[in-house]
Specification:
There is one protein chain. The chain has 521 residues and is α/β, with parallel strands linked by helices. Helix content is 40%, strand content 18%. It has 19 helices and 18 strands. The strands form 3 sheets. It has a 7-stranded parallel β-sheet, with helices on both faces. The radius of gyration is 26 Å and the shape is globular. The model is unreliable at 1-15 (pLDDT under 50).
């Protein structure tokens, strides 16, 4: 038996499982044909290439890499030839177009013209466009059923992105129900390519992610929108249940939890120039000897802030973390992202909104009109949460980790950050089960929340048999903690699901669905 040896990265044992799992997702490609997108980390390009070349040593398969020679083979498909002649785009003062040049009986070359004149192609985005055409032509060959295209999307600007989108739409129409597949491996750290051209349309049949820690499949755009619509329909398009984490405020300019943790670690270890989380975490644990063997992957911002207090920083409001937070908050309060603006418009249209959050910013407070805000411990002790969860009219905000408006409530204070107190657990119990005793489970959108708070996650999942909510996790990317949370729901009727949207894009879709429903009525 021949042994297949694959050259991998230096941390190959850790990364191999994720890569192989990601590639094995391809075995589930729909048989009718179409486009399958797989995202991978750009810095692992060579390793991914080696894995793909090994995997695609199959009959009737072709492999195209973004830095291959720019040429087409003989018998260029007439459809592709016509497509090239009709395609052009404008960037700045220049108009770009394409043509085919016959170099021999066996080979043709794609040329790009700038204002009608051939020029040397050095721009990576132009090269990626040409490779997309090359991959499309290969796929239409009679003897090829699968083309794997490793594409550099991070080099694409707005106009070349549009051309890529046009090419993929064109080829998708040609290969539907043909049994042929274009498998596009791409890197996109900014989410721009996915946001603009994958989330917004269903030009692909499937979409998968290979990351350094995990691999997974996600729904396409149409299925995601259908799921959101069904969730809103449960409440007759009159109510919206949200659970917001730090990711919901990032597009307003607020820092994420990891950024704040990095700042806290720098202050704790007196290491202002170190930017590596792992180095700072290990250094921080040496400050408190009994914590030397703690798993660094489980250290939250709240835990680091408790170490900061133990080390002598009593007034956390004067810490570097809070100073940085306040600077960003001043700007975000004046210019909240479109998601918060649309949330405000929905509330003003009479939609009942229950927003539970672990954020201590006040973006919800200023976005929702006259909200009931539950922050203080005595409020959690006295409120009728069953009534709130069942759907009190208007807007209600429940802040599990406190608010900057009441510094004593902040979850980063040492007396608050160890475990949720009893009254807050009682609220979560009402939120997920006892107040929703009739009908099917109600969908709750968890937006920008990574489920790293063990006490909250435990409160939600400790008794899945009595759970009366169905979690829909909305985040531009999966994390190990999100994946672990979703797996807990595999054997219960109300299975958790994942939608790869940012907060702003999600709210844009929510707003459109509410508007469409109002027009029908």
């Amino acid at each position: 038996m021949e042994t297949l040896r694959i050259k991998g990265p230096t941390w190959f044992p850790d990364y191999l499982k994720s890569c192989v799992e990601g590639i094995l997702l391809l075995k589930e490609i729909p048989t009718e044909g179409g486009i399958f997108f797989v995202k991978y980390p750009k810095n692992l390009s060579e390793e991914i290439s080696n894995l793909l070349k090994a995997f695609f040593t199959l009959k009737n398969c072709a492999f195209v890499k973004f830095n291959d020679d720019l040429k087409l083979f003989d018998n260029v498909n007439q459809d592709i030839s016509n497509f090239i002649k009709e395609t052009s785009f404008v960037t700045g003062p220049s108009e770009y177009s394409f043509k085919l040049i016959e170099r021999s009986d066996k080979e043709c070359k794609i040329e790009m013209l700038r204002n009608g004149v051939t020029f040397p192609i050095n721009n990576p985005s132009h090269k990626t466009v040409l490779q997309s055409i090359f991959a499309s032509d290969l796929l239409l060959k009679e003897n090829i059923n699968v083309v794997c295209f490793q594409m550099d999307t991070e080099c694409l600007d707005l106009e070349t992105n549009k051309v890529i989108y046009k090419i993929f739409n064109h080829i998708n129409d040609k290969i539907k129900n043909s049994g042929k597949h274009l498998i596009v491996f791409y890197s996109d750290s900014t989410h721009e390519f996915a946001h603009e051209y994958l989330w917004r349309d269903s030009i692909y049949n499937s979409f998968a992610i290979i990351d350094s820690h995990l691999s997974y499949r996600i729904k396409n755009y149409k299925d995601s929108i259908r799921e959101i619509n069904e969730a809103l329909k449960q409440n007759k398009f009159e109510r919206l249940d949200l659970f917001l984490g730090a990711g919901a405020s990032i597009e307003s300019g607020m820092p994420g939890g990891r950024t704040l943790r990095l700042i806290a670690l720098k202050e704790l270890t007196n290491s202002p120039t170190i930017e590596d989380d792992e180095i700072l975490l290990k250094k921080a644990l040496t400050i408190i000897p009994e914590n030397l063997h703690m798993d660094v992957s489980k250290i939250t911002l709240e835990y680091v802030m408790s170490l900061l207090q133990i080390s002598g920083k009593q007034n956390l409001c004067q810490s570097d973390v809070m100073k940085y937070f306040e600077e960003r908050h001043d700007s975000a309060e004046k210019n909240p992202s479109s998601g918060y603006i649309l949330l405000k418009e929905l509330a003003e249209k009479g939609i009942t909104i229950l927003a539970v959050t672990t954020n201590f910013d006040q973006l919800l407070d200023i976005s929702l009109p006259n909200p009931k805000i539950i922050i203080q411990d005595d409020q959690f002790e006295s409120e009728d949460f069953h009534s709130i969860v069942r759907g009190e009219k208007g807007s209600t905000i429940v802040k599990l980790h406190g608010s900057r408006s009441y510094p004593n409530t902040l979850g980063i204070q040492i007396q608050n950050n160890m475990e949720l107190p009893g009254p807050k657990k009682e609220f979560l119990k009402a939120f997920i089960s006892s107040s929703r005793s009739e009908g099917p489970p109600i969908s709750v959108f968890f937006i920008g929340y990574n489920f790293a708070d063990l006490d909250i996650t435990e409160a939600i999942t400790s008794n899945l048999g009595y759970l009366r909510i169905r979690p829909i996790i909305v985040s531009p990317e999966m994390t190990p903690s999100i994946q672990t949370f979703i797996k807990k729901f595999e054997n219960v009727p109300a299975q958790a699901t994942f939608i790869p949207f940012t907060f702003d894009f999600f709210m844009e879709k929510i707003f459109e669905i509410f508007q469409q429903n109002q027009m029908k009525n």
